[in-house]
Amino acid sequence: MPELQRLSPFGTRGVLGHSQPLAAPVSIALKADGKTCTMTEKPFLSLLNIRGDANDAAFVAAVNQTLGLALPVQANTGSFAGEQQLLWLGPDEWLFKTNPDQADRIGQALRTALAGVHHAVVDVSSGYTTLVVDGPATPMLIARGCPLDLHPKVFGTHAVAQSHIAKASVLLVATEAGQTFEITVRR
């Protein structure tokens, strides 16, 4: 039986169940106000939407222990470790982002750890893609369609916000203030 291939929104090809794409992700050079940046897709990331009560010690402990990240409870923050991100979306909602093809394994581990605790864990990996915009022109380029103040003094490293760019709803993460942003958007 042949391997099933998947195609990212930007055209990156991959094989189901394999974390590496068949070819390098698409990268595009961009320019704004005389400065440059690049936009590169991070295809096939695993994304889990997690819902629960941040005031429930059992919920917090299970999430922290299973993911190895502290559950962020303050608005517009996240926990970061290597390629893993746990991002605050609301008082009872978080998005966990990690390497490709991990959602089933991690989702099941979370569901097991949260047995008996009010929660929801949903794999939303196939509904989103993440773009990385990197370079000196990045804040100016994003600001052309986004109402947020992206100045490093306001939107610092690891700042998280839900907003829009043009008419697309996005989750914006500053991985390096004023230089590198991850934009997670519906496909």
Describe the protein in words:
The chain has 187 residues and is mainly β. 15% of the residues lie in helices and 42% in strands. The chain contains 3 helices and 13 strands. A 6-stranded antiparallel beta sheet has the order 3-4-10-13-12-11. A 5-stranded antiparallel beta sheet has the order 6-7-8-5-9, with helices on one face. The longest helix has 11 residues, at 57-67. The mean pLDDT is 92.
Walk me through the topology.
Layout lengths: L4 E3 L5 E3 L11 E6 L2 E8 L3 E7 L4 H11 L10 E4 L2 E7 L2 E6 L4 H11 L5 E5 L4 E7 L3 H6 L16 E6 L2 E9 L3 E7 L1
Antiparallel strand pairs: 1-2, 3-4, 4-10, 5-8, 5-9, 6-7, 7-8, 10-13, 11-12, 12-13
Q: In percent, how much strand structure appears in the residues?
A: 35-45%
Can you tell me the overall shape? globular
Summed up, the helix count is 3
**How far apart lie the N and C ends?**
28 Å
Q: What share of residues is helical? A: 10-25%
Mean pLDDT: 92
Low-confidence stretches: none
For the largest beta-sheet, the strand count, sense and barrel status come to: 6 strands, antiparallel
Features:
187 residues, mainly beta, six-stranded antiparallel β-sheet, 3 helices, 15% helix, 42% strand
What is the gist of this entry?
15% of the residues lie in helices and 42% in strands. It is built from 3 helices and 13 strands, in the order βββββαβββαββαβββ.
